[in-house]
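>> received
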Amino acid sequence: MANGSLASQNSCASCNSVWAFSKSFNARQLTRLAGFDIIWTSNLLDHLLIQDEDEKLKVHVFHHVKVLENHLTIKNSIIPPELILETMDTLALMIPRADRRVRKWYRQLQRPYVLDPSVLSLEYLKSENRRIDHFVFWGGRLRKLKRAFDDHEPHGPLQWWRDDRKPVQWWTFWVAALVLALTIIFGFTQSVTAILQLMKS
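>> returned
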């Protein structure tokens, strides 16, 4: 892999702002909130690559932690150790073992997709390692993925209910929905009451 091709994705002047990934940014949430399809790949070059086909977003995830760990033990490996460690950090970011719901979700996918169970043995990322500037090789693709995740608007009540990325917007939507529901109920009740009164008279 050409190191420069990945690292150069972070060289733009507009990409210098430093921010950290929230705990809600993970692979499970990508599928639940933003409707992503995850393509589990064995090609490291495709890791975190986004595809937009037929109005459906897809992201490739390289999950072979054991392969990466083996390369760390090989002298003069074709994969630089810095790239290996950072790739493992992206997996710890996307599939955090400390999140019970993510663990359950990943384990349900292990058998049908033959996923590497070692992903769930990766150390949880410390707050300083969740910053975008921590990711030298994969930062460009992570930025694009985060932007696509943030830009996605929920479709349907179920996604609105699940989407807690913007608490103010979430509460505004459900308060408005509650007010609308109560208005309909009270209006229906008044109509029924009026009809009953007419029938009695």
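>> Residues 3-154 form one domain.
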